[in-house]
């Protein structure tokens, strides 16, 4: 039975992006909870984490972490733009079957 389980695990195929971290500039509206809920409803998204990084008179700079089985970057970009946001940078991307956490090395 153990061999069968291992073979089934080996058959799991990576679908694509499973985590993406974005630096986004957005207007104050929609408020962050509404924006998070909206992004979480995109097909393939299992969860959204938003951290407010900076705020000024008209905009908010936020870090958005999205995780799922098969994230569609183009669909995510379109959704962000439809809500008035713009992506400043893509800060992290994870693809494959599982998340590999970055490790610190002596050179760091």
Description:
The chain is an alpha+beta fold and 108 residues long. It has a domain at 29-99: 2-Layer Sandwich (Alpha-Beta Plaits). It has helices at 2-10, 32-40, 73-82, and strands at 17-27, 45-55, 59-71, 86-95. It has a four-stranded antiparallel β-sheet, with helices on one face. The model has no long low-confidence stretch (mean pLDDT 89).
Short description:
It is built from three helices and four strands, in the order αβαββαβ. With 108 residues, the protein is of the alpha+beta class.
Strand content: 35-45%
Classify the fold: give the CATH topology of the domain at 29-99: Alpha-Beta Plaits
Cα Rg:
17 Å
Strand order of the largest sheet: 2-3-1-4
Shape descriptor = globular
Count the beta strands.
4
Reported CATH architecture of the domain at 29-99: 2-Layer Sandwich
Structural class: alpha+beta
Number of helices: 3
Query: What share of the residues lie within helices?
Result: 25-40%
Observed structural traits:
single chain; 108 residues; alpha+beta; Alpha-Beta Plaits; four-stranded antiparallel beta sheet; 3 helices; 4 strands; 26% helix
Blueprint of the fold:
Blueprint: H1 2-10, E1 17-27, H2 32-40, E2 45-55, E3 59-71, H3 73-82, E4 86-95
Antiparallel strand pairs: 1-3, 1-4, 2-3
